[in-house]
Design a protein that fits this description.
Helix content: 25-40%
CATH architecture of the largest domain: 3-Layer(aba) Sandwich
Low-confidence stretches: 342-349
Number of helices: 10
CATH class of the largest domain: Alpha Beta
Structural class: alpha+beta
Number of strands: 13
CATH topology of the largest domain: Aminopeptidase
Oligomer: single chain
Amino acid sequence: MRWLAFDGLGQRELDAWHRLRTSNPALDSPYFHPGFAAAVHASGRAVHVAVDEDDAGEIRALLPGHREGSTLRPVGWPGADFQGPIVQPGESFSPLALLSAGVRSFEFDHLVDGVAAFEPWIRSRRVSPYLDVSGGLDGYLGRASKSGRDNISQARRRTAKAERELGPVKFQMDVVDEELLRQLVELKRDQYRATGARDFFAEADRLNLLHRLLRTRGRDFGGIMSTLHAGENLIAAHFGIRADSVLHWWFPVYAPEHSKLAPGWMLLRELIVAAPALGIDRIDLGRGDDEYKRRAKTGESTVCQGIVTRSSSRLALRKLGDTVVARAKSSALAPGLRRVVRGLRNLRR
């Protein structure tokens, strides 16, 4: 296995990346598209790619990531909701081969399930819900649960209420507007502050990433920002990424002063309606058991958490960290315990 900086990849490596990804249906998420790694690298956070070749010199796998000290993490960490090697279905891949050139561990938290070679290193699994929106709204409603159908119906009625109280409702599926993106990010940061969550956008390269993705307009990959206004009010917005027929639901926000309208559901309904026009068949909601995800989903995949290492002490530290995280999430003291969790994460770097 050899290592290359992303901008050191040649046409041979990029062609292999596209070929391997296309051959494997489990890799249809936008996070596996080379365009995502390219945008992350260009935003100011270096991406290195492990390139694995067979005995004949043919590229059989690639894995992009970030080398932080002796730890390797998947490209886009901690914002990548799907992770794993770019490899054909059933092709062998040795996770331990990643532990070379100074890399002592490979840490993952959204590894796609089904890569058998990682099984010894997986510590937990969590569901990642999605919406099958093929056929648009009618197709979705035919597959949704009763709860999902009820919430979509309520969203239609609340849209009418918003028009009466705030003014005409305007939905934009795919808008390129730096000012609207700034508003979206500010709403998201307000949400982080209100909930005590870590501010994803505290690091400049992550803001750069969204602005770069907003301007990425390829036919098979790019960023996509959707907005919902009522009168002059931005009541909900979403920034995601898409590859071919898959849209990833990444940064949804709503204006808290209009929360009684459930504008997030209003926006989601509009996205489902508009999906066929953009060729979208699936909306991935990302890992988590949020109530709206449970209600809206038509299905779910599984992502895995773990660490590949030869070090028993690192494994023990990871186990301790997982235990504290689990307790923090279930405790009434969760906001305060988050500081402890972050400290443990820093120790694992």
